[in-house]
Amino acid sequence: MSNKAEQFNKVVSKIDRLEAYVEQIVSMLNTGGSGGRGRKRRTRSHDGDEFSKRLNKGEAASCSSTTGEKEEGCSVEWSASEMSGSASRDGLHDESLVALDESDQPVRWNRGFVNGIGLMSSYSVVFPRGLEWVHERSANSEADIERISQWQAHISSRNQVVTAKPSVEQNLSSSTVMGYMLEIYKRFTPSEVLPVHIRDVDVDALYKKLSDDAASMKSSELMIVNIISALVCLFLRLGTISMETVSDLLMELPPHLIQKYEEEFVGTSLSLAYRVALASEGMISIKAIVHLIIYTGLSGAIYASYSLISVAVRLSQDLGLHSESTYTTLSEADLEERRGVWWMCRAIDLRFSVILGKPPVVATFDTTTKLPEKDKTFELLERVSIKSAGHSKEYDPEFAEDLYDTILKSKGFLSIAGHYHVKLCTLTSRVYAGLYDCSTECNPKRQYRRIKSIQRDLEEHQLSLPKCWRDGRLFQSSNMTGSTTEAQGVLVMENTILHLLDTLLVQRCRFKVEKYLKATSKLSHEPEYKGVQSSRRILEFTIALAQNYLNVVIRVNAWAFFVVCIDIFCFSLALQKDEFQFEGDMNLLLNFLNRVHTSLTTPTPFTAHETNTFPMEMTTGDNFTNLLNNFLFLFARLVSIMKNTLEARTSKKLQLNYEFILQKYKEPPIQLPNSNFVNAFDFLNPGFEDCEALFEYF
Questions:
Q1: What predicted TM-score, i.e. pTM, was given to this entire model?
Q2: Does the keyword Transcription apply (predicted)?
Q3: Pseudo-torsion of CA 656, 657, 659, 661, nearest 10°?
Q4: Are 577 and 633 in contact (CB under 8 A)?
């Protein structure tokens, strides 16, 4: 027994010594001791060079996977100029900051400081804990909260129905309809039909092969022609392709069946995607997956896009597209093709990671591939646009417009759009990695510097756009100018919305940091939440759009409108003290909901063509129609909660514009979207966000 007692005492003694050692290390890290200086961390910079940096005072500033920012605690260097941050030239000169210096103890932001990005954070407000938060800050709204609770429970409990390969009963075969769709595609340049295009895909050759010897086609090739056919069906239904220009091809095809054919094409593509993912056929397989991501993104199925990009990335890594060392023996054409495909995957990855608030698939230190050679023409366009839009007006605005028209004719719209899209995706990734990554650890001054740096770069990016692109002013009427088509307009509008959302997220993070500084007596003024201003601008911009654009923008960016409407709602309940602005925000929301309601009742060019051609056939509602009905119900209830709360605060009855929306969408819709694949309004994945922490800054 004595031996066992001695052994037990030895074990206990070792555990005590181990605990003391761990506590000593933690203490050294927290107090800026030498515990963090014992070793160097070696890693690779973006262009393949190795670097090492000693951590100062235990400040483990996050070298986040997607940030291009270069700071004291994070020494990642980027090979491409547009991927590098501008924090090094950013000074922090704010007299309201009191005694805030680099010697402050590093702060590990809790969940309340690093969440609040992506759809999951907005979805939290309609879950039980979020509704408790709403109940505490509202008045006389128990009935509306109960309706939302029952609606959310019904959606969350429904069975998932994934898009199956449907069977369409029709006189025309799928191959015949596919021929019609590809013929429509060939009548235009790719940029006139689709806002995104994968180069080096010969659609004519694929269609000829499909007609002559379909059995010999690769799975990836079949997948591409099916997706292109589905995309053309989608844009026909949305009205971005003029029915007059293709009416001769649709005389034998009832338009109400186009949705059914679209679903069949997508179902076939999904079946082929599994085969392509497991047995890659080379570069064509990556392009096939990216085509499918383009479709899911444009149809609003952002969850599917986020999952599919991981497949495209893995296939790319298998071919070595992520490593610059694999490019040394390639021809110039192959080199640019591989780089272009890889960076398209990277841009898509970064974009959807920010939309959903989830980590990107590719970490910065996992790739050394440089961006495709940057065209100096686009740099010139940026500089001239900035200097013609700023206060100095070094260049005449007309000169900048003439330069844009010249470059548009020589380079094409998609080349210009691709340049600005990659640049904005890079800025978006910095918003996520520098401000919202849950591993972010820094002192408040460093976080504040990042915020100001990204804000300045976002403002500069907006000024660098051609004048007709800024704020989407060109697309606020149905009159088209120049060579711009409606499909191209969709891409420009999406750029505008993403830019405003980036600004919203940066302003949200700034408010959180300032709240922390105020609580620790390091900020003299009361923080003001300015993110709601960006939310209002997005709604005002959308309300001003012509109806033909509105139908497309709402479908493609349903997630964005959910985020901004929830932002205005939460701000109004928690922080809004101005009753006139409170009422103004309710009218703004109702005005937007009225435009959404109008989009459900106004015939598109497609439905008008159907009525004239097939007067006995009626178009059946699709999943997106059901989605909009659910969207309208939810936000009609949230506006009703705002109205009841303000009436209780002011003790007076309010008369709002478009108040009929509150009565029309009083009860939950009977029919719910039944396809998760094309459903951008999916509540089945709430993520890991804690609602209590989420709205802590409100």
A1: 0.76
A2: yes
A3: -140
A4: no
